[in-house]
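Is farnesyl diphosphate placement plausible here? Inputs below.
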Amino acid sequence: MALFGSKKTENGPEGSLLPAHVGIIMDGNGRWAKKRGLPRKAGHVEGAKTFRKITRYCSEIGIKYLTVYAFSTENWKRPADEVGALMKLFKSYLEEAITDFKDDDIVVRFIGDKSGFSRELRELMDENEECSRDREGMVLNIAMNYGSRDEIIRAVKTISRKVRDGELSEDDITEALISDCLYTAGQPDPDLIIRPSGEYRISNFMLWQSAYTEFVIMNKLWPDFKTSDMDEALRVYAQRNRRYGGV
Ligand code: FPP
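Reply from A.M.:
I modeled the complex. Tokens:
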């Protein structure tokens, strides 16, 4: 890509300037709707269109892993009609996604606690994972009912059970073991996390995995986010000098 023609630093994994793993906190749907005098759910509908467009674009330009934050463990606190509208949106999206991403060769995965959703949604999630499992393209992690603290608690419980049962000793507890007990087991940590809408918060997203992630905050509400904004975030990332605590 021309975008990465003017190399400045050897940045990402194996010196690549294109991040292997990008996380996106899809924020600003509510404000987008409010600005237009529309109900918040209209912002989510528009946000879902942006999500499809950006997902496809990331796959086309060679991103290997994309993780999007669609619904947090805390989002259940929202008014019932907004949560209901989001569940409806997830259902229609998941029904379409089974065929939608076929030609894009995208592997769909869900990270988070599926048990919080209706049986219908859980089955759709399983179906999406099942039918995309053997594809070889970009892995799309959709974080739904995801909270990073919850994810870490689950990992601690898994490990403590294994120590109790004698399968592991205390000395076996390493960073790699903890990573292997997270929803993202086997995947590289995100190189870049993008948060549109101008908020400077991590909001319980990939806390363990983002120890050395580069953050790019964009002053755009998610429904307004364009492929050119993605290019801009990647350009900013490519200029960063990643030191991982070294010099
Ligand atoms: C945060 O914006 C956004 C959400 C809680 C929902 C994100 C969901 C989508 C973009 C729908 C698409 C996802 C799938 C998987 C179909 P906000 O409502 O908190 O915005 P605000 O800060 O402006 O209020």
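Short version: The first strand starts at residue 21 and ends at 25.
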